[in-house]
Design a protein that fits this description.
single chain, about 150 residues, alpha/beta, three-stranded parallel β-sheet, 6 strands, elongated, RNA-binding, Ribosomal_uL15/eL18_sf, rRNA-binding, Large ribosomal subunit protein uL15, Ribosomal_uL15/eL18
Amino acid sequence: MTLKVHHLRPAPGAHTKKTRVGRGEGSKGKTAGRGTKGSGARVQVSARFEGGQTPLFMRLPKLSGFTPRNKVVFQVVNLDKIASLFPDGGSINPDSLADAGAVRRGQPVKVLGTGELGGVQVQVHAHAFSSSAAEKIAAAGGSTTQI
């Protein structure tokens, strides 16, 4: 005969029957494992109850606000940084900015208008532009393209 899982049984004496407490003084009756007197003996007290001490949930500070799940966090680049990294101008995209060390790769890029281009013509491809940055790039003879 082959041994199968449904043939397995525990060894004799390995499992004892459950003790039913509180069923008369002849069989583990009386206090039934609850000790003597007090609220624990008389009623079920929740695990979070701290005996009248200020509860943990009241001692901790409340959370302030919330963080939206789909918030877009831009890597920002200012015009003065673009002017210093690309003095000859030309076409600039997020990959060229990442190669120059201005932003992290694989994240959306926003161009801000702090500083001046100094007459450098640039064609900037980015995910977002501030209005002042777009004006300054256009004034210098460049162009902006939103990806």
